[in-house]
Amino acid sequence: MHELLNFKDEKLLRQALTHRSYTNESFGELHNERLEFLGDALLTFISGEYLYCRYPEMAEDEMTRRRSALVDEKQLAKFAMEVGLDFRMRLGRGMIQNGGFQSPNLLSSTFEAVVGAYYLDHDRKMEVLRPIIEELFDSVPATTVEIRSNIDSKNRFQEWVQTTFGSVLPKYVTERIGGPDHAPEYLSTVFVNDKSYGKGKACGKKEAEKKAAENALSELKKQGLI
Known about the structure:
Radius of gyration: 18 Å
Structural class: mainly alpha
Mean pLDDT: 91
Strand content: 5-15%
């Protein structure tokens, strides 16, 4: 069993593996969305620190692109499978019937939740979590990270924002707008200085954000700004 699944509090691990679709069918269970939020924040920090220490000469914009490549949905889904989360996820019947165990969105979200739960289970000590995540990062071929970092729409839009507005960062506001539990639909809007630049719809939050960035880049191109 992978070290990331080594928990003192088994209830916390069970919650991290529990999707909302399972709780809708099982009274009294807690879903993993709050843990997913925490894990996402931890992975963003650890990946940034990892790149900062590993590549002391790398510029900030390149580190930003590579960080996004390390923690994008497809990469986190691969990490989830390496750790062994695919068939440990607790999903509702409808979600399972629709291939939930192979869903990159569900795998990546569950991985984030487990990371958040592991951090809490180990007394909120980053030094316990850090080497586990860095080992996973080390398993990613450098060429894979480089290719992904060069094509990610969120990175390209952020580069334009920082070139145009300085240190300002795009802000993505994503909400669920419908769909059943096994195929939810999200709408994401990307803002810069409280102005909307693009919108995107998808079946996953991260994919909706990418669609919003793509829409923003498309609109900028129409206006002759890129």
